[in-house]
Prior knowledge:
Strand content: 25-35%
Order of helices and strands: HEHEEHEEE
Largest sheet: 4 strands, antiparallel
Helix content: 25-40%
Number of domains: 1
Shape: globular
Number of helices: 3
Radius of gyration: 15 Å
Amino acid sequence: MEHDPYFSWKVSRPIHNADDRIMFLNPARLRVCNHLFSILAYFAKEFIAKASLLIDYDHFECTLQLSCLHFVNFYDLEESLFWFVLFCTEDIHIDAMANGAFAFTMEFPLFEPLSPPNE
């Protein structure tokens, strides 16, 4: 994580005020997230990269990342699997890393609000 500026920023943010809202961790979404992470772990093995999953209970966020990539060369089904991961996630971006590597970072909507934020 020390080589990844985006993850470093995410974990160094101030803690969210938990009194603002009540969130529900959806078990069906948790299962989907597990499958998405499994797909990224497969790609990490295939491309000699790293798959990461960050569930941030303080900010109610779930971040998936395929990092330390130096190349991406998908074949048939692999490309379809990668598009599936992108289709299921939000806020997708590509981050530069050290030594010319890059990372695909995406958010997964794991949490659902049970109550509106207090204003």
